[in-house]
Give the backbone structure.
Amino acid sequence: MSIRTITFDAIVVGGGGAGMRASLQMAQSGFKTALISKVFPTRSHTVSAQGGITCAIASADPNDDWRWHMYDTVKGSDYIGDQDAIEYMCQVGPEAVFELDHMGLPFSRTEEGRIYQRPFGGQSKNFGEGGQAARTCAAADRTGHALLHTLYQQNLKNGTQFYNEWYAAELVKDANENVCGVIAISIETGETVFFKAKATVFATGGSGRIYSSTTNALINTGDGVGMALRAGVPVQDIEMWQFHPTGIAGAGVLVTEGCRGEGGYLINKDGERFMERYAPNAKDLASRDVVARSMMMEILDGRGDGPDGNYVYLKLDHLGEEVLHSRLPGICELAITFAGTDPVKEPIPVVPTCHYMMGGIPTNVHGQALKMSGGHEGEDQIVNGLFAVGEVACVSVHGANRLGGNSLLDLVVFGRAAGLYIEDALRQGMTQYEPSNDDIEAALTRVNRWNDSKGGESVHSLRKELQTTMQNHFGVFRKGDLMEEGVQKLADLRGRIAKAHLDDKSSAFNMARVEALELDNLLEVAEATAIAAYNRTESRGAHSRYDYPDRDDENWLCHSIYDPRTKQLGKREVNFKPKTVETFQPKVRTY
Amino acid sequence: MKVSIYRYNPDTDREPTMKEYEVDTQGKDLMVLDILALVKEQDESLSYRRSCREGVCGSDGMNINGKNGLACITPLSEVAPGVKEGKKPLVLRPLPGLPVIRDLVVDMGVFYEQYEKVQPYLQNQSPAPAIERLQSPEERAKLDGLYECILCACCSTSCPSFWWNPEKFLGPAALLQSYRFLADSRDDATEERLSRLDDPFSLFRCRGIMNCVSVCPKGLNPTRAIGHIRSMLLERGV
Amino acid sequence: MVTSVTSLGRNGLYDWLIQRVSAVVMGVYVIGLLGYLLAHPDLDYGTWAAFMGSLPMQIANTLLLFSVAAHTWVGLWTVTTDYLTRLALGGAATGVRLVAQALIGLLLLVYILWGLLMIWGGA
């Protein structure tokens, strides 16, 4: 089978914040750039980000310093965030945020006319010594929406070529494992095309849909991670999944940490503000892993409310109607729609909910994807032609736990950085690797497998089983034997998914085909998560084990690297060498 | 309960049909999107758009028992009396006035083209400062009720003027965005923007029917924005 | 943004203004006339003819005539461009619309000339 080839200088897969920031950078410099997105770009999950973008722009506090932000981020990461990358992000951040304002992002404002900043969890002044900081730049509680629309608008202005509702199915590599582009399917017509480019940028976002309860959009199926793993590219720290403290109980819909930043707090069924016990200083604004664990402990100790005693409450009514309607209007809407409670009058039932994938494709600060010389260990090697930015990437600035408001910053800073790097590389003449027909054929295997399937289990039942397995075996608290069982269940699922059936083979807007292809990716992410979580024998950041309750700096002050070919977990050094500041040495992490 | 869904697959169907499904909600007040997921478990060939499932991405705009809305934030109890109880069927059709690609999926091309025509991006000729462009809270407040648009097309596809002239009348969604930039103190292309709007179609086809206001899932008011633009044009023209 | 138009003002704002100004003229005229009729319950032809033949009324009638014509033209032009379109009628739409608009235009022109004759012809 020969398919159509479309050639670009660079292609970006994914139309969220990171992808559109990268494509904008390249389109501005006049390179032929395509953005392939399985949904119209403003439907990407960035749109759901609420609270804001954390950055030391010195509006709320004129003395604010990006180094303080860096300190918080390193500490938040439980010391496995790469300090050179965190340094870059925090230092370049203000420039990237001001650019967003110049592009038209409608930030909320202070009386001085500057960007409004609110307090978020894990933020401090003066390296943890100066009390709570307010560093998260906000557009009410719709910052992600405002950001995503602004970036789409700028891409329109600068002539990015959009392939909307095209589904990227597989990486295409040459015989030497260099990346040449992707196979993508037009969802509208069913046509399968090879997009050839010198640079392929993955900005496919997260994979929260591996869990049955998640704040993530239905489209967050880990397509980038799946494609990378099938192509033999490793993933890093993939066991690190953030559970956001405040997902609406039952619905899983996110309630921003900004609620607590504005003065809201959590209470158990007795009305007690329990975070005072777990984090006496930061209380409800401790970092997310700490708050989520504390909530789960309350629930497990029988102080949760509801028929099954499985949620606690976020109390906001004391803030008053005016503050809630001006600062948190979206939350008020969501709470009424999905919890049936008006936060002006009653607290919102909340429960820790899968929210963010700290791990992903390992990259350097330019977004270049990395692999290890020995598969799961050895020296870093660049995967030629492949870049990753945003949630799918693991630079790593979030380490074992991401701070609220740092994901939007990650998107724009590293989307921009990758764009700048590729721009420069293209100017100097980047190699276009040429795949053979066999290479293209190999990349089509999976699509053909589904198209030729003739009976077997249905996609939705397998997906449900996978999500339940992840939810039950790899949740907030983890345990060796339970995880071992989970790993086995996933191995069994792998066999069954390989034989699953796609009944609808029609070409026009075949949603079932997309969901089938997504299922393969969910499985890849789930299995990598499971094996990495089982093998990291310590508790750090979001990875919390009953059988290894303590942080083990002697053995695990490092990244984990999962090699999909051998399914082995190796270690990779964390960077402790920032360029302009002293190293932040690991300390006991309290809030 | 009974669900009646507009089905059309260009590969196999000569014309669209309404197909009936039986769904067990266990008496719960589910969202319409949840119902679609249940139907899809029975019949995987049903196609529709969805993403965030919380009313902020704008994917799942559709016509629900005669009224446009987002499936993910429309509970059965709000569709029509009797639907949740199963006394009346839930009737789902694609957004009206746009070509159907398949089932509940419409071709939104012309809707997006109209959006692009209003130059939906900030324009400012003066060099950018080293920090943000300052804007007072009062100036910023003018953008409230405008920037929140999610481009779901519920408004434009419920507007008769847009049905009649989808290529010439910009429609409520695009006009709301047009005003979002006219109202932004950081934008200095007011004259250029206004001069592009003063033909008899682009803006003046708004007849004040206000269907847009009644269906907007975000509670926005495009008719008011259009009124503001008309006032600006009037001030400029006389 | 839409350039090929045959409206009266050839501009949305002016069409819109014409529509409103002419409506005001017609409204004022109707109210004035009603007032006159109420004030003259025993109106006979002679009084009526003299009233209509007076210069102020000749001017008012002329204004009314042009207002009605302009209002009708803008209104019906809009109706034809709403309903007589390619979307509704297919390829023949432009032809049909032009014929309809020409007929409306012609009729209005006849009305104006006829009206002017009536108003000023007797003087």
Notes: Chains A and C do not touch (no CB pair under 8 Å). The longest helix of chain A spans residues 511-535.
